[in-house]
Specification:
alpha/beta, ABC transporter transmembrane region fold, 2 domains, 22 helices
Length: 599
């Protein structure tokens, strides 16, 4: 994937976009947060009234007077101080009850936002063009869909809701109350906060920059692990475990150095924040003591001033953590947007004609986006309905590229490809892929039963149709030998089956699509020669009306085809039947002679 863009949406827009349909719950959450803060402050205010009653200091503020009146007046409260304890407990329990509701709302918002975002990202990945996916690293995609989504969701559904709004209400109400108590106390309680805000604003940018590096390094680790798990058989076959461990160690060292660099900056950042916060509380306490000794404020007022100063400062200190998480969330959002902003593959527009197998390539040229030379350079040939065509050539000659173009996985650069005289580019891709069945060189089976793997391409297939495809793929004896038959679980990527068995299931899966065009991209090479012959004979007998294209390296597989196409350097160098090409000097003749000598 590309480097992280430096320009980002505002955090406000990111939050609104992420919350989506949960806005009403968010507003309710904000309202409940405000109520909880009010009850927390009232609980502390009751302590002030309690201390003032002990010193026989009568209430001087409207909040004091309202609470004292609620408790039956100053004289009654002075005689029954336990009433203040009951009220404090009631306020505290109310705050706890509201917090329980808040946490449930938070969980609901978290779960629904996560569900929607992950489904949206997965949907985007599924609908990206094949050419785009080929440019991306699997580890980057996994990192974005899982960890980056979780980082953004955690910030929006937890930090933003639980911490940010709590801080706003606590600071606002605390300062207003302190201002009513004594303006000097109120001003002293925020004297150092501008320095904290300024430091947070500039310091968090460096924290975010360093986290970008950490996030990219972690994506590299994810990609390495994913690649190594897929290649574990190759690693073991070449006794390459130690090399891979050492290579992975280099990835970890890179991550460790970047993570240490990031955490070191975080440590400095939060330590300085703590120093400012403690200094602010100390300043408020000193000024409060001076005012109390001068008789300007009561002991109760001093006590609540110190409490409110802490309640005002520490939420702002914790806001530093929120800002740090916000930096991570913005980075994660940027990575998610890179997937979301990719142009989706259009599989729905286009014509949907009847396609029964007449195919023609006219002077087709193609090169990959990152390539300089044409992989196909003026390729032309015709395939009639019902014909079997074999395509042979050296590695890199363009065989698989022809397969990719016929499946519309890549757009051809120049020339024309038609099916039944309809230009391939004009045909709806979804319709095209329903009529072109592809058996890949490397079969992929999902971690399901054999029957489920077959039904993926045709959920409405009958058991009779399933067994018919299985017989053509020469898989019937294998199925009969399995204890659970079609209900046998194949394991992750078909790990419980041999390479030949996986390939035959893949062939059967393509056959159940009933596509009029069948393409075997070197997919018969994984089965033995005898099975290869059986499959091709069964295809001729039971699927004789289908147009079949077989990409192969075996002369034994190609010789029974109606025509054979030989590709060299992206061009058609030979075209004809087996007998014609055997008697003609060229690549096919040389391959035939080499393979005959081996036999």
């Amino acid at each position: 994937m590309k480097k992280i863009e430096k320009k980002h949406k505002s955090i406000f827009n990111i939050v609104l976009e992420t919350i989506g349909e949960e806005k009403n719950k968010m507003f309710l959450f904000i309202f409940l947060t405000m109520l909880m803060v009010i009850f927390n402050l009232l609980t502390n205010f009751v302590n002030k009234i309690f201390l003032d009653s002990l010193k026989n200091d009568k209430p001087s503020m409207f909040i004091d007077k309202a609470l004292v009146k609620m408790l039956g007046g100053f004289d009654n409260l002075h005689k029954n101080l336990w009433l203040a304890a009951i009220v404090a407990i009631a306020f505290g329990l109310s705050s706890c009850f509201i917090n329980i509701i808040r946490r449930k709302l938070e969980g609901s918002i978290n779960a629904k936002v996560g569900y929607r975002n992950q489904l949206d990202l997965f949907n985007k990945v599924q609908r990206l063009p094949y050419s785009t996916l080929k440019k991306m690293k699997n580890g980057d995609i996994l990192q974005t869909v899982t960890r980056d989504e979780e980082t953004l969701r955690r910030f929006v559904a937890r930090d933003m809701t639980r911490s940010l709004f709590y801080t706003v209400f606590m600071v606002l109400f605390s300062f207003i109350i302190l201002a009513f108590i004594n303006i000097k106390i109120a001003l002293s309680s925020i004297a150092l906060l501008p320095f904290l805000f300024i430091y947070n604003f500039f310091g968090i940018k460096e924290v975010r920059r360093r986290y970008d590096y950490v996030d990219e390094s972690e994506a590299e680790i994810t990609a390495k692990i994913e690649e190594n798990i897929q290649a574990i058989r190759v690693v073991k076959a070449y006794n390459n475990e130690q090399y891979e461990i050492n290579d992975f160690d280099n990835y970890l060292k890179d991550y460790k150095s970047k993570f240490f660099f990031y955490r070191k900056r975080c440590a400095v950042f939060f330590t300085i924040c703590d120093i400012i916060c403690f200094s602010q509380i100390a300043l408020t306490t000193i000024i409060g003591i001076i005012l109390c000794s001068m008789g300007d404020i009561s002991i109760g007022t001093l006590s609540i001033s110190i409490q409110f100063s802490g309640m005002l400062v520490w939420p702002i200190r914790n806001l530093s953590s929120v800002l740090s998480n916000m930096a991570q969330a913005i980075t994660s959002y940027a990575r998610m947007e890179r997937i979301r902003n990719e142009e989706l593959e259009d599989i729905d527009s286009g014509i949907t004609p009847n396609l029964d197998g007449d195919i023609e390539f006219k002077n087709v040229k193609f090169k990959y986006d990152d390539g300089t030379n044409f992989v196909l350079d003026g390729v032309s040939f015709k395939i009639k309905k019902g014909e079997t065509i074999a395509i042979m050539g050296k590695t890199g000659s363009g065989k698989s590229t022809i397969v990719n173009l016929l499946s519309a996985l890549f757009p051809y650069t120049e020339g024309s490809i038609t099916i039944n005289n309809y230009e391939l580019k004009d045909i709806q891709k979804k319709h095209l892929r329903e009529h072109v069945g592809l058996v890949l060189q490397e079969p992929f089976l999902f971690s399901k039963t054999i029957a489920s793997n077959l039904k993926i391409v045709n959920p409405d297939i009958t058991e009779e149709e399933m067994f018919n495809s299985i017989k053509i793929a020469s898989l019937d004896q294998t199925i009969n030998d399995l204890k659970d038959g079609l209900n046998t679980y194949v394991g992750e990527r078909g790990v419980s089956l041999s390479g030949g068995q996986k390939q035959r299931i893949s062939i059967a899966r393509t056959l159940v699509t009933k596509a009029p065009v069948l393409i075997f991209d070197d997919s018969l090479s994984a089965v033995d020669t005898e099975t290869d012959i059986k499959i091709r004979q069964a295809l001729k007998q039971r699927a004789k009306d289908k147009t079949t294209i077989i990409v192969t390296h075996r002369v034994s597989t190609a010789k029974d085809a109606d025509h054979i196409i030989i590709l060299e350097n992206g061009k058609v160098s030979e075209f004809g039947t087996h007998q014609e090409l055997v008697n003609k000097p060229g690549l096919y003749q040389r391959i035939y002679e080499i393979q005959n000598r081996i036999v």
